[in-house]
Amino acid sequence: MSAQIAPGVANLRANVRVFTDLDSWSHAAALEFVNASQSVRSEHRRFVVSFSGGATPGKLYDLLGRAPYGDQIDWAALEAFWGDERCVPPNDAQSNYRQVFDLLLSKVPLPRENIHRICAELGPEEAADAYQRVLKNYAVAPLDWPRFDLALLGLGVDGHTASLFPGSDVDARRPVMPASGHYGARPATRLTLTPPVFNSARQVMFLVSGSEKAGILADVLYGEYRPTALPAQRIPPSEGQSIWLVDRAAAVGLPGHAVARKE
Ligand code: 6PG
């Protein structure tokens, strides 16, 4: 069902898996999520996740709310964070929190106190300070933030990930910072976690689908290391694993890509 591709010159230590289509890709991502939750459970820890925005993970979120995936997850042990947020109220259709809540969190027995959204309606600076305090409450020493068991991330056609946009400065001294990036009709004023936070995750899972991502995916994984132009290159977890789940349409630019038959 999937094919593995060796890491490219950008040396992101990436484990790239290619799936025939968005459907098989979404099921594979759901299975990874379940496996990660169960391995954390076997260690008697809480399952600390950061969710991504964007259209790509919609089907994944939907699948996770239902059998056979949702009923294998100990939802009471999950702590939900967000990797980035757009500066809109939480009930706005453009809110990353709202997307995950509507598609997934509202459908599972997750206690409300386990939901740690970015309160972007406070405005960028105040929201960044407030979220920094939230992250600190769940910090795992020596970090000032939680160590995510799983950080879900997308990839923009311009190479952005979370709300780390090309050409923007990154203040790596802060775990969360205001950000600005024009991307289609989406709100440009945002907040984002910074690379040190993502890079301390046990596992980062990039979710990439669609032919429009083919060029940028090849650049990020196999092109020169140019993190200012290609912010997704800033995320090679230092002690964790980086998995790129990619569909065939997005993988056509990867060298030597091969896709197994759909079973
Ligand atoms: C957001 C995101 C962002 C997203 C990419 C990919 O809030 O917009 O978190 O980083 O993941 O823009 O978006 P698509 O999945 O819609 O292509």
Care to describe what's here?
- By secondary structure, the chain is of the alpha/beta class.
- It has one domain: 3-Layer(aba) Sandwich (Rossmann fold).
- Helices cover about 25% and strands about 20% of the residues.
- The chain contains seven helices and ten strands.
- The protein has helices at about 20-40, 60-65, 95-105, 125-135, 195-200, 215-220, 250; strands at about 1-5, 15-20, 45-50, 80, 85, 150-155, 175-180, 190-195, 205-210, 240-245.
- The strands form two sheets. It has a seven-stranded mixed sheet with strand order 1-2-10-9-6-3-4.
- A hairpin with an 8-residue loop joins strand 1 and strand 2.
- The N and C termini lie close together (about 5 Å).
Quick take:
The protein has 263 residues and is α/β, with parallel strands linked by helices. The protein is 26% helix and 19% strand.
Summarize the topology.
Layout: E1 2-5, E2 14-19, H1 22-42, E3 47-51, H2 58-64, E4 78-82, E5 84-86, H3 96-103, H4 124-137, E6 150-153, E7 176-180, E8 189-193, H5 195-199, E9 203-208, H6 214-222, E10 241-247, H7 248-251
Parallel strand pairs: 2-10, 3-4, 3-6, 6-9, 9-10
Antiparallel strand pairs: 1-2, 5-8, 7-8
Bound molecules: 6-phosphogluconic acid.
